[in-house]
């Protein structure tokens, strides 16, 4: 049996968003136990020209909701990027998980060949097949932001490792 587009996307996003949620939980506990201001983590960056942790989480959620939505032919929900604390980031992750878990598996049928239009009507418009969109664009983008969030927390002294990054599978 061939691997379905649903199986190659939704369970992966669910696993890694669960991991990201747990990483943030451990970071918040670490900050509380050591009297560290949460903003020290939430606004941390690998380098000054990179997005801070809070934005890495927001973007990871954006890819986790937009990629499966487009593959399923569903509208991509819009979230305002207003999160300031761990609790708000957790709520964003939970909202994203609820959305993608609600996408019907049969809506992904034929999505490997479905044309995905990114930034429609803009000079940067790009048309790409569903399989390439998932495997060569969506998943790599998503993993970049989850990995960067992990690295920021690890750099900040949170006691996490590869097992924490991988989450439940």
UniProtKB/TrEMBL annotation:
Gene3D superfamilies: dinb family like domain. It comes from uncultured Lysobacter sp. This is DUF1993 domain-containing protein. It comes from the Bacteria.
